[in-house]
Amino acid sequence: MKKFIPLVVVGLLVLCGLEAVALPFNMAGTSVQKWKQTPYTPLNRADILDQSQPVFNFFGPVGSFYLATGSPNYIIAQSFTPTLNMLTRVELMIAKNITAIYDYTVGIRDDLNGSDLTSASLPASEFSSVNLTWEEFDFPDIVVTPGDTYYIVSSTVNATDNWYFWGAYFNETNDIYPNGTIYYTINDEVNWTEEPDGDMTFKTYGVDATFLNLTITGGIGVTVNTKNVGVLDATNVKTSVTMTGGIFGLINVSEDVEAAILTAGDVLPFKGQPLGLGPITITVTARADNAAEVTKSVDGLILLFFVIVK
User: Fold this and answer.
1) How many angstroms separate the CA atoms of 305 and 222, rounded?
2) Where exactly are the structural domains of the chain?
3) Of 119, 85, 46, which is closest to residue 288 (Cα–Cα)?
4) Strand-pair category, 202-207 with 58-64
5) H-assigned helices in the chain
6) What is the pLDDT of residues 144-156, one digit of tens each?
7) Does this model's pTM top 0.85?
8) How many CB atoms lie within 10 A of CB 56?
9) What is the mean pLDDT of residues 4-20?
């Protein structure tokens, strides 16, 4: 645990209480039991819990932590290995320092040095400065590869006195979450340091996903087919079609078609009949509870009721 000493020191300090961390540290008055986890009510969602590490005995700072020499800007990541092929959201056990005013951002990466695959932010007003609470980051769903390593990356604006606490568990002999570990950087991601003796608190949610494919054709009107090209049934499928353009922009049509279940290999059809003359743009978006959203846009030409798709 030697590499992670700065964060362990932070954990000891904040055990005294969030709003009082600027006061002299009193080891005799420190007890992890003074900090409690706020009672948690599971949300009613179609997704399910996949990976989790829900216990804590220390904390790590996220942001510009002034009690460390030079007030370094901590960015902390927790690696995890999903078993479901669509990641829908994560929950982290977090509290804020009373001086935090900027958003807390969570990104998901498949490479610590890469860009976010998806991300979500919450304002400082959403966090407690008294107890750790489970906070949900509901980002746009992404397809992931079960068994591969991904990273939950926590950050905030690098500004004076703007920092948060992310709950963590450290034990040199008991790897509480064997499918991942902690990484942190204090130099704006120039390099990352691994801390193999701990794991941050987190929960990941997902579903076994299928995949949708769109085709758009012309002729007498516009035909759109949403096909389930995966191996699982798609649930609560919705295809939204917009057709705009024509002379003087007189064509402006929006229609939806839905299906509660779209069996693997089946097609959800749509037939639209715009009327007009001139160039037209057709944009289609399809989504399902267990499929990533797909969008397709094509240009065409309408001659009264006949549509030519380019």
Assistant:
1) 9
2) 2-207, 212-309
3) 46
4) unpaired
5) 5-14
6) 999 999 999 999 9
7) no
8) 23
9) 46
CATH value of 212-309 in 1.20.272.10, 3.40.50.2000, 1.20.58.480, 2.60.40.10: 2.60.40.10
**Residue 60 in contact with residue 200, Cβ under 8 Å?**
yes
Distance in angstroms (rounded) separating the CA atoms of residues 1 and 24: 25
Q: Which residues on neighbouring strands pair with residue 278, listed in sequence order? A: 302
Whole-angstrom distance, CA of residue 202 vs CA of residue 135:
10
Q: Which structure tokens are listed for 208?
A: 């076994």
CA dist 177 to 53, 60, 165, 265, 296, Å?
A: 6, 17, 20, 38, 40
Burial of 229 (0-12, 13-18, 19+ CB in 10 A): middle
The domain defined by 2-207 carries CATH number 2.60.120: yes
Task: Establish how many alpha carbons lie within 13 A of residue 111's alpha carbon, considering only the half-sphere containing its beta carbon.
Answer: 3
Q: Name the burial class of residue 31, with classes exposed (0-12), middle (13-18) and buried (19+) by CB atoms within 10 angstroms of its CB.
A: exposed
Nearest to 255 by CA among 271, 267, 266: 271
Phi, psi of 29 (to 5 degrees): -95, 10
Report pLDDT digits (tens) over 190-229.
Answer: 999 999 999 999 999 999 999 999 999 999 999 999 999 9
